[in-house]
Write a structure and sequence with these properties.
By secondary structure, this protein is α/β, with parallel strands linked by helices. 29% of the residues lie in helices and 27% in strands. The protein folds into two domains: 1-90, no CATH class; 108-211, Vaccinia Virus protein VP39 (Rossmann fold, 3-Layer(aba) Sandwich), CATH 3.40.50. The strands form two sheets. Strands 3-2-1-4-5-9-8 form a seven-stranded mixed beta sheet, sandwiched between helices. A two-stranded antiparallel sheet has the order 6-7. Bound molecules: S-adenosylmethionine.
Length: 211
């Protein structure tokens, strides 16, 4: 294992790192909001008031067919803490989304970030371009996005989102340098009809080696 992965716009969550930590050498984590970064840092520090991710860790271990006992969960969470070496601020609106750094990642994970951070389609397209510039030529993208969204909610707060469908995502990824044949998108319907989005899109793609 020699690769380095970045979670871009990870929010206050570490769920995407549970399986990633067993597959990469190192993980970097980023978000736009300082309170989100502090929440993740609390979990890393095992602070008593940190969110308990163990039910999610257990679910991931079950899906991976790995030991999901208390000890198995503890070992995987230790592995995440060992491999997560950087927690930093990011901004998808900046052509240098991590500030001045020449690091390019082998694996880029970005879940519900670009389409959930703007309601403007051309800004979403720019976010996708900026975010994916952090991936090495030949690197792998793992992305989840809301499908057909007008908004999404967290608790009682409602946030705007960009309305995109599979073809919009496929086209944007192709235009920013992903190999056409490598782009795989699967969708699942929203869990409740009352959601202000149709479903979730799960995408994987490989960046062209010649970019
Ligand atoms: C819907 S949340 C998704 C968080 C997490 N990835 C998840 O799956 O739960 C959207 C995230 O995008 C971040 N965000 C908002 N504006 C951003 C920007 N300009 N650049 C990068 N991230 C941004 C927010 O701080 C928030 O954590």
């Amino acid at each position: 294992m020699s690769s380095i992965a970045l979670d871009f716009g990870g929010g206050p969550t570490i769920y995407s790192l549970i399986t990633a930590s067993a597959r990469v050498k190192e993980i970097h984590f980023s978000d736009y909001l300082e309170p989100n970064l502090q929440e993740v840092q609390k979990w890393l520090d095992c602070a008593p008031d940190a969110f308990d991710w163990s039910a999610f860790t257990r679910a991931a271990l079950v899906l991976e067919d790995q030991d999901y006992s208390q000890n198995g969960i503890l070992l995987r969470e230790e592995e995440i803490r060992r491999r997560l070496t950087r927690v930093m601020k990011c901004d998808a609106n900046n052509p240098l989304p991590l500030g001045k750094t020449d690091i390019q990642y082998d694996v880029l994970i970005t879940n519900f970030c670009a389409e959930s951070s703007t309601e403007d389609r051309s800004q979403w397209r720019l976010f996708i371009e900026n975010i994916t510039s952090l991936l090495k030529p030949g690197g792998k993208l793992i992305l989840c996005a809301l499908k057909g969204a007008v908004s999404y909610s967290v608790g009682k707060e409602v946030f705007p989102a960009v309305y995109i469908l599979e073809n919009d995502l496929r086209q944007a990824l192709f235009e920013v340098g992903f190999l056409k044949d490598s782009i795989q998108i699967e969708s699942v319907p929203a869990d409740r009809p009352s959601r202000h989005y149709q479903g979730l899109m799960l995408a994987m793609a490989m960046k062209s080696a010649s970019i």
